[in-house]
Design brief:
single chain; 466 residues; alpha/beta; Four Helix Bundle (Hemerythrin (Met), subunit A); 3 domains; 5-stranded parallel β-sheet; 15 strands; binds adenosine monophosphate; binds zinc ion
Amino acid sequence: MALSLFNTLSLAVEEFVPADGKTVRMYSCGPTVYNYAHIGNLRTFTFNDTLRRWLAYRGFVLDHVMNITDVEDKIIRKSMELGIPMCDYTRKYEEFFLEDMVTLRLEKPERIVRATEHIHEMVELIETLQDKGLTYDSEGSVYYRIARFPGYGKLSHNDFSGIQAAARVDNDEYDKDDARDFVLWKSRKGEEPYWDAPFGAGRPGWHIECSAMAMKYLGSTLDIHTGGVDLAFPHHENEIAQSEGATGKPFARFWVHCEHLHVDMQKMSKSIGNIYTLRELVEMGHSPEALRFVLMSVPYRKKLNFTIESLKGAQTSIDRLRNYKLRLETDKLADGQNNEIEKLCQQALAKFEASLDDDLNTAEALAAMFEFVRETNTLLDQGAFLAGNRASALDLLKRFDRVFDVIETRATENGLGDEAIEALIAERTAAKKSKQFARADEIRNQLLEAGIVLEDTKEGVRWKRK
Ligand code: AMP
Ligand code: ZN
């Protein structure tokens, strides 16, 4: 089966190929930077990462844009309460977010763009909508008149026929004509940050940010638009109304939404006190890879129930994969190649790839991998795994890690990455051979200080982290 994704627009799993056959023009709603991202937010961003990596694995080129929402009601309220300029306040949380992305091994989208640096594009888009008669003004603000956009509801599959178009519903501090209408531009209020615009000083509404930035970088029609499920309505529905209202072209071919993460079967909330951040989990002694593993272990369209216990299980699974890789690299194996094992490698790879092609079924992909590890560990014990089988099994692990990225260890601020460790071990072995024992001891001590313990075995040097 070819790579396919569930499209919220059609409510069906559809084969995905970018419009030009090569480059995936993808937009993901990014974080609102007024606080640390919680692990629910990180689930959605990890899903974006999985999707990116799988598209790249399948040979597509990525042009992935993610926005940073750095102007918005909560941001303004919080920064004003603290008396900090809005941009200083948001810049700090943006940095924390980018750090979290690195810690969680989330690939950086090709472009990360700030809303406040695209006000001009938003103003132009609002002017286009005004020219097309799709807006109205109310108390200095500009609203979208949804009654003029017939396709409204097509993404969230909401039927709005029950809502009287002209009914005046004041469910907002701003005055609008129809419950579905939404603000494009909010008039300047008090000391709040504002920008000048032909239709009066003010600031953009949240929805217009994404339409303007997505179309600026990716054109009128995107291949994929992603976000958490809560964004499908009204945010994405409104993005469609804005973009398609302005261009008359379909805004995104695929809409892909990630289900929510819950904690201990409950919604995360401040009152329950079950909101975790990545930093908190790391401080508690859990590895970022364990969280990454947990977040990826449940397919993105299923609810994920997070528990601390699940992090421990994930760490055990990661350790099993790491130990298996170490074994493949260091076990002394008899010469030759066992064809049955080559076949197992091919089957596992085929199952791994088919699972991810099938709407990113990460659970099935993991199952294929662990089944392979279990089977071949036994064959290693039995001596049936031969030296000529090493390369295929290692290649499989490499392919797995191109997407899951949990096996390979990384250099940290005060630690060493796998490559650096292996280079030092090779140098130590060479030093010993040439009888430079002082240098060999020096390297052993250097590694020990970095938390790496060496074990000299008959099959060579093994190492592990303390
Ligand atoms: P925000 O920073 O609030 O704009 O949210 C960033 C992303 O996280 C959005 O795509 C949300 O849909 C998503 N999100 C929020 N809560 C959760 C959750 N509990 N589980 C998964 N994704 C979430
Ligand atoms: Zn958005």
